[in-house]
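quick one, 119 residues, struct below
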Amino acid sequence: MKNILTMLIVTLPYLITITYLFATDSMNDQGDIGKECYETGQLDSETPLVNDIIPYIWKQYYETGQLKSETPLVNNKEHGIYREYYKNGKLKEESRYVLGKLRGTTNSYDENGNLIIKK
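---
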C-alpha cells in the first residue's frame, strides 16, 4: 500500500475557496470514485470515496448514460446548486441548498428549457 497525499481545492457558493489536504492509503482504479450500475451494466451513479467533510458532487445517470442529476454535498448534506436534467440533456430543475436546507427559489423548466415554475 502506498500513502498518497492529495490536495483538493474547492470553491463553495459565495466565492469561498477552501483547500483540503488529506492522505489516503491507496487509490482504486477509478480514482477513488464509487460507481453503481444498472442491471444492463450502464452507469447509474458515481460518488467520490472521500472523507465526509470533503465537498463532492454525487452524480446520477439515466440508463442511456445521459446525466440525470448533480447533487453537491458537504458532510453528507446538500450544499450548493442541485441540478436535475431531462433525458434530452436540458435542465429540468435547479435549487440552491445550504447545509441541507433549501435556500431561495427552485426553478423548474420544460423539456425545451423554458422556465415554467419558480417557487
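DSSP finds no helices and eleven strands in the chain.
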